[in-house]
Structures are given as C-alpha cells and as structure tokens.
Amino acid sequence: MIVDFRSDTVTKPSSAMLDAMFSAETGDDVFGEDPTVNALQNYVANYFGKEASLFCSSGTQTNQIAINVHVQPGGEVICHEESHIYKYEGGGIAKNSGASVRLLQGNRGRITKEQIEKWINPEHDVHFPLTQLISLEDTANRGGGAIYNFEDIKNISAFSRSNKIPLHLDGARLMNALIETKIDPKEYAQQFDSISLCLSKGLGAPIGSVLIGSNDFIKKAHRVRKVFGGGMRQAGIIAAAGLYALQNNVDRLAIDHFHAKLLSETMHSFSWIKEIVDVETNIIVVVLKEETKRDYIIQELANKGIKTIAFGPGMIRFVTHLDVSAEQVNYTLEKLKEI
Ligand SMILES: *Cc1c(COP(=O)(O)O)cnc(C)c1O
C-alpha cells in the first residue's frame, strides 16, 4: 500500500469529477464566453458574498495578480516572514510588481494588528516605501495548518480600512479553516479586499484557483491575468472540476482533520518524536528528537509506502487529503509503530 502524505496537492480527480469535466459546456473564456467558467466565478462570488471572482491557473497566479493590482512599484507589502507569497512564489513580489516587503515574525505563520501597526510607514516621510498592502495566510502552511482567530482578523481588517491599506488573504486552505471554525464565509470574506482560494489543494480539483473581490478589483485583476499569460480559452473543462469540488468536497474536509488528529495522537508517544505541532486542520508537523535523522526517517517511512516531506531542519510534514482513506490511515498507524 502507498499512502501519499506529501501534500494535499497530490489528489487525483475522481471519476465523478472527470465526468463533470468531460460533459462541461465550454466557450472562449478570453471572450468571456465560457459558461462553465462563468458559473464557477458566480458560484464563488455568491458563496463569499463578494461582487466578483476570477478563475486562474494557480494559487501563485491569484496571489501575484492581487499583489500587482494593489501595489505600485516601490511600494511595500506587509506579511509573515514565512508566508507563501514571499517564501514560495519565486520572488514574484519583487519581480512582477517591483515591490518591497516588510516581513514580520509571528506565532505559527500568523501576525497581529499590534505588529502591523508598528510597520506602517509614515506617508509624509520620503525616506520610506509606501505601505500598500497587508497580506495574511489562513490556514498558515508554515504554521502547520494553524487557523487565525477571527477576532484577530477583524482587528486587522478594521485597522487596514481606517488606514486605507488593502487587506489580501492567501486562502489556499481557507475552506479547511472555515470547516473547523464554522464561521459564515460571507462574514469572513467581508474582512478582506481580495481573497485567493485554491481548488487544487484539499478540495481535490486537478488545476485552478479563484481570486475574489469587488467588481472594480476583479476588472483590474482580469487585465493583469492577461498580461501574466493567464488568459485561458475553453477553460470550462477545468473550471468544471473546481465547481464539482466546491459542491461536493467541502464538508468532507472534516474527515481529513479527523485523520490528522488521529495520526498525531498516536505519534505523540513515539520515542523518536520530540513534539508534534498542535493539529488544527489537515497538516501534521513532526519535530524529531534527533534533527540529523530526518532524511533517514523519511526514507524508512517511504520504504513502508508512507510518503512524507521534509519541512525544515529536524521536521517532517504529513498532510491528509481526500485520497487518504480511513483504511490507509489505519495502515499508517500500524506501520509507524515499526519505526
Ligand atoms: C499551495 C499554496 C499556494 C498556491 O500554490 P500553487 O501551487 O501556485 O497553486 C498559495 N499559498 C499557500 C499557503 C499554499 O499552500
């Protein structure tokens, strides 16, 4: 048996999802004529109570488009030092938008209004880059799938509005957060000027992310998507998978969270593990007693069919997702005891 815990991006489209893709009505989306893309964009905008949304090829693309719309060259983006937009998007903030970053430290990938407040550069002083965007990540990947406290988000949102600085959310795994907290998606989305949502993570679509915002924002984003080479033609084929994912695979994220908790509870007692970062959603970060044994343990696990990924010095990440079944979790629990 092979169990792939490397990432929730490894899921493959189910046969029902493939059927939806196969029978999707299509048109040229650069002309705005793909009915399935339009259906997905309407569905997402309604779901989050926002005016509009835009289907894009990846989460990197939605984030980078959002940054490009919000920020002028020479401006500054405030984000956590380990945020995806900074750490894992190939230097895109600098390369695509010519912007600088103010990186903040913070508990498990999250930042607070009190921290942000200190780093808003005074507009009247020509020395400083203009602070033009605040960006949060929920759930926070480097934080081991940590969820923001909604009160903290509301505080940041109120602060950003009163300072007229837009607030972006990298919501690659936003659905994992909302399933856990049960916060109304519309009330949540209201706090942000733009949101990037991945369809190809735990939701199980093969391709695609959606950028969400006001009509005015999405109109600008649409232009940037074209400039970044993201205008797609009969994209309904893949949008159908995203729509299917949103209509069928949201509630079941709770199963992934249950599996992650089950795995972490069992692993707690193992002699080779120093600690496990508290599991809040579908990510388990294991901290090893002996940092130097990381690659050896990853290989030992792989020899038993359990695929995991290195997550920094002495750390291994497991991610649960819809292609990890209860049976595979039980198998893993048995095999882990042999390590
Ligand atoms: C996966 C991910 C993204 C987007 O990645 P793509 O591979 O470009 O779709 C963005 N932010 C976070 C936190 C992610 O985990």
Structural notes for this entry:
With 339 residues, this protein is α/β, with parallel strands linked by helices. It folds into two domains: 15-248, Type I PLP-dependent aspartate aminotransferase-like (Major domain) (Aspartate Aminotransferase, domain 2, 3-Layer(aba) Sandwich); 252-336, Alpha-Beta Complex (Aspartate Aminotransferase, domain 1), CATH 3.90.1150.10. It contains 14 helices and 13 strands. The protein has helices at residues 15-22, 35-47, 59-70, 84-87, 92-97, 113-118, 150-162, 174-181, 185-189, 215-227, 236-248, 253-267, 294-303, 326-336, and strands at 3-4, 52-56, 76-80, 100-104, 131-137, 167-171, 194-198, 209-213, 273-276, 283-288, 306-307, 309-310, 315-319. The strands form three sheets. Strands 2-8-7-6-5-3-4 form a seven-stranded mixed β-sheet, with helices on both faces. A four-stranded antiparallel β-sheet has the order 9-10-13-12, with helices on one face. Strands 1-11 form a two-stranded parallel ribbon. Strand 5 (131-137), helix 7 and strand 6 (167-171) form a beta-alpha-beta unit. Helix 1 crosses helix 11, helix 2 (35-47) packs parallel to helix 11 (236-248) and helix 3 packs across helix 10. The longest helix has 15 residues, at 253-267. 46% of the residues are buried. The mean pLDDT is 97. Pyridoxal-5'-phosphate (PLP) binds at residues 58-60, 84, 137, 141, 170, 172, 198, 200-201, 209.
